[in-house]
Every structure is written in C-alpha cells, then in structure tokens.
Amino acid sequence: MKHCFYNESVGFFYNNSRKELTTYWRTKDILVVALGLTVSLIVLLTNLLVIAAIIINRRFHYPIYYLLGNLAAADLFAGIAYMFLMFHTGPRTAELSLKTWFIRQSLLDTSLTASVVNLLAIAVERHQTVLTMQLHSKMSNQRVMILIFCIWATALLLGLIPSYGWHCLCALEECSSMAPLYSRSYLTFWAISNLLVFLLMAVVYAHIFIYVKRKMGRMSAHTSFHPRYRETVVGLVKTVTIILGCGVTTVFPWGLGSQQCSLGGWGHCSLPLGVVGSPQRSLCTPGLGGH
Fold first, then answer.
1. Which of 19, 45, 72, 112 could form a disulfide with 50 if both were Cys (CB 3.0 to 4.6 A apart)?
2. 282, 71 Cβ separation under 8 angstroms
3. Average per-residue pLDDT in the chain?
4. Ranges for the G-protein coupled receptors family 1 profile domain (predicted)?
C-alpha cells in the first residue's frame, strides 16, 4: 500500500526534488515581483477595455469578436493568476500549504490552456468563413456560447487534474524537478496536449493560406470576378494575418514565462516576456474592426 504525504510541507517536496527554495528576499526578487504586479495590472486593464468594447459596440457582435472577447477573458484570467503568483512566490513559496500551491499552479495552467484552445477555435471559425467566402460566420449565438463553455471546461479540466489525483504526493519518485508536487507524467501530458492543439491550429491556418493563394491565382487568371469578391478575399486574409500574428506569436513566450516563474526558476524568469503578450493581443482587436 502506498504511503501518501498529504501532511508534509511544500519544502519537503522541493527538497525531495532537489529544488532550491529561497528563504529571504533578494533585490532581484523584489524587482521581479514589482514588475510582475505592474504588468498584471496592465493586462487586467487592457483586457477589460477589450471586453467592454465588444459588448458596447454593435459592429463587434459577430462570432469572431465573441471568440476574441473570450480570448481577452482568458488573458484577464491570466492576469489574475499572475497577480496571485506574485503574492505567493519567492520566499513565500515555502510558507504555502499544499492546497494553495496547487491553486497557484492550476490558475496558471488553466489560463494558458484557455488561451491556446481559444486560438484554435478562432482558427476553425476563420477557416469556415474563408471556405464560404464570408467575412463573418453564420454561427448562431447559442453555438458560440456552447463553444466558449467547452473551451473553459477543457481548460479547467486540464488545470484541475493535478489537484484531484494526478500528482506525486503518493509517489515521490514520480515528482518532477520543475514542479515538485506535480507528476512528471502529468506535465508531459499537459505539454503534449497544448502542443497538439497548437500544431492543429497551425495546420488550419496553413490550409487557409494555401486555399486563399489558389483562389487569388484563379482570380488573376480570370477577369470576370466581381471586385467585391476580391475585396472579401483580401479582407479575410488581413483578418487571418492579424489574428495569427497577434495571437499565436504571443502564446509561446506566455507559456515560457508562466512555467519559468511559477516553478521557481527565478534565475531564468521570463514573466514579463510572457505576460506582455496579452496587451499586444488586446491592441489587435481594434485593428480587426475594419475587417
């Protein structure tokens, strides 16, 4: 019968994984926390503005903007998660209960997964509109809400799994050196799951660009196409490019930042690089207004 260590401290698991825990505040620790809190506040403000703009502006009442609004909500959630991290990191990590440590990690994992899955949903929505040559999907509001619900259900499931059993509290030999309370198998599963979603999204966007390139080639060979048809195609390409550039390129540093900082890697902490992707995505939403 396995012996579980539910009554041990966080420090016990860090020592088991040979993970260093700082016991005093260093200058760089204070600077990182101050910068992290500042950027988190910016993330909260910018994404609240995006969500408010989508709700108020009737021009944004289409499926693509609802999904972009949900992406902003995921980033807003990430800002809250990073703020929670800043108040429970550094020397404070050793003082955390096991429950608080799991909450800290689950918030970060859930926010990143929600962003990645939401980007996939946006890619699929754009794929549908490109194939039907429409700027906006005909998807009903009810279907959009169901899709958004599924996105968050998936993110919460992946984020909460460790707290409800997929950890190493009963198998110390399975503890990860990166996250001392997480099982190595879970971290592998989480990383591969997000990578597969990202690769699937890349395939969808690749098909969009190939399809549009062929369409443009046919249009250039025939002069009988209506100008509005060409404008629609160009508009779709612009929208896809903006989403791809502002969304996909900011998730990779986001993931790196969350894992390096949340797992105690202060010497290689890239939190500012990761969190700054959220305001960058927020600034892209107004740019889609004309598309």
1. 72
2. no
3. 78
4. 46-246
Q: pTM of the predicted model, to two decimals?
A: 0.78
In the predicted model, is pLDDT for residue 2 greater than 50?
Answer: yes
CB 130 within 8 A of CB 211: yes
**DSSP secondary structure, the chain, as one string:** -PPP-TTS-HHHHHHHTT-----S--HHHHHHHHHHHHHHHHHHHHHHHHHHHHHH-GGG-SHHHHHHHHHHHHHHHHHHHHHHHHHT-GGGGGG--HHHHHHHHHHHHHHHHHHHHHHHHHHHHHHHHHHHT-SS----HHHHHHHHHHHHHHHHHHHHTGGGT-BSTT-GGGB-SSSTTBBHHHHHHHHHHHHHHHHHHHHHHHHHHHHHHHHHHHHHH-TTS-HHHHHHHHHHHHHHHHHIIIIIHHHHHHHHHHHHHHTT-GGG--HHHHHTHHHHHHHHHHHTTT-
Residue 50's nearest CA partner among 24, 71, 72 is: 72
Question: Higher-confidence residue: 222 or 63?
Answer: 63
214-228 residue pLDDT tens: 777 776 665 555 555
pLDDT tens-place string over residues 121-147: 988 888 888 777 776 677 788 889 999
